[in-house]
Amino acid sequence: MNIFERYILVQQIKPFIFFSFVLVGIIWLIQALPRLDDVISNGQSGLIFLDIAILILPQVMLLVLPIAAFSSTLYAIHKLITESELIIFMNAGLSNIKLIRPVIFFGGLVFILLFFLSIYLVPITQHKLRTKIFEIRQEFSNKLIKDQQFFHPVKGVTIYIREASDLGEIRGIFITDARREDQTLTYSAKEAIMNRNQDGLMLVMQNGLLQVTDSSQSALTTLKFNRMGFELDNFIPSGPRKNIAPVETLPLKVLRNASNYGANGSYHQNEYISEAHVKLAAPLGALALTILALSIFLISGFNRRGYFSTIFTAIMIAILVQSLTSAFRTTVANDVSLYWILYTPSIICIFVSVFMIVFSMKIKSNPLWDKEMSYVEDQ
Fold first, then answer.
1. How far is CA 51 from the centre of its chain?
2. In contact, 242 and 164? CB cutoff 8 Å
């Protein structure tokens, strides 16, 4: 690369880093903050939440980086046009092919990054995330049986234990369940025992009292019981299923040995295959959007007076490509023989963009470009 090409590449990388941090940060917080309540309510430390938040990050990056790559390319070319830098470069001998090369190179870098994320890092971190949540679940009973402490497993539920033994035997327990706005359930029992069976974690209360307060009817109902079971699994994230989830699988491994997945587990084989193709199609989308941003500007002749319509057109096409890819996920999940349609929007976008680039290069004298040159010279 010569100095002009390196400059254009840097102009893409800088906004790419900025857009990536902003977009990833926003989506990351949206997905990570709900986990904060789970961690705090289960008595975990802030380090556990940080660990979970980091494990969420690769999946967020996989979703956001194609948008960041597209936005940074649009911004970089727009900046070069509005500040007349591109005009100066063209007058200094920068050809269209030298403009194209750094953009394609940048798109290739993003493609490689997303390919690594989708086929390796995301499956591994998603598996570790579910394992971490399951570990929190396993520690739930240990956190619960601490005596003389108020415990809030979820919003609206309070548990208090007067005395508890290491064997899970409890003397004196109080539970308030106010998750429903119109009804509050209050349990109190002299004795209880906590055990885990194949159905999950159960709290069995003995010699107790249940009070139901119905605010809509201003009614209070009292019920005495000798023995009552209370499912604690309703308050905690579900644990691992019999086999790993599709999002946790390595896509290339699934496609090589599809018969090994979904035979006896909780997921169907089609779910694994469709998820594998979704992962493989994701990097292609980033490359397609990057080339699209360049081709739209090339075919428009870098007309500075109409760049708003150029940007708007590019954004609309990008939204269409991403929307079609997302819509096709459901179709492929139902019929994996149609897996190829997941790649179709990106491939068509690449072919059309390349055609526009080649077409623009074959035009010896672009009228729009001549108008722009005249416009700049008049200023």
1. 16
2. no
Q: Tokens standing for 37?
A: 């309540």
Report the SS3 class of residue 69.
helix
Instruction: Supply angle C-alpha 110, 116, 122, rounded to 5.
Output: 115
The dihedral region occupied by 222, where left means phi > 0, alpha psi between -120 and 50, and beta the remainder, is beta
pTM for this structure? Answer: 0.68
E-strand stretches of the chain: 150-151, 157-164, 169-180, 183-197, 200-214, 219-231
| Strand (E) or helix (H) holding 156 | none
Q: Quick one: the chain helix, strand, coil %, rounded to 5?
A: 65, 15, 15
Q: Report the SS3 class of residue 272.
A: helix
Query: Which residues are CB-contacts of 40 (< 8 A; sequence separation ≥ 6)?
Result: 49
Domain boundaries, the chain: 3-137+244-378, 154-231
- CB 329, CB 274: distance < 8 Å: yes
Long-range contacts of 157-164 (CB under 8 A, 24+ apart): 157/235
pLDDT in tens, 58-105: 888 988 899 999 989 888 888 877 777 776 766 666 666 777 888 889
Q: How far apart are CA 141 and CA 194, in angstroms?
A: 8
